[in-house]
Design brief:
It contains 2 helices and no strands. It has about 70 residues and is mainly alpha-helical. The termini are close together. The mean pLDDT is about 95.
Length: about 70
């Protein structure tokens, strides 16, 4: 079960990374937006990415402990 949890968590991380990549590409293609605003948006996007990865890791640790306790 722990192996399955790790596989699902990795799939979640990959999905989060793909979403970040898609968003970053859309930010770069924006017209009429200054470079500073684009850089700021990319930094915000990276922060959201890091926060979501951290949440996923925390959930994984919680579930792993729960499964191992049973």
């Amino acid at each position: 079960l722990v192996k399955i949890l790790h596989k699902l968590a990795e799939d979640g991380k990959i999905a989060i990374r793909h979403a970040r990549t898609d968003a970053r590409d859309k930010i770069k293609k924006l017209d009429g937006v200054s470079e500073d605003e684009k850089k700021s948006a990319e930094k915000d996007l990276q922060k959201v990415h890091d926060d979501e990865i951290a949440k996923l890791e925390a959930l994984l640790k919680t579930k792993e402990a729960e499964v191992m306790a049973v």
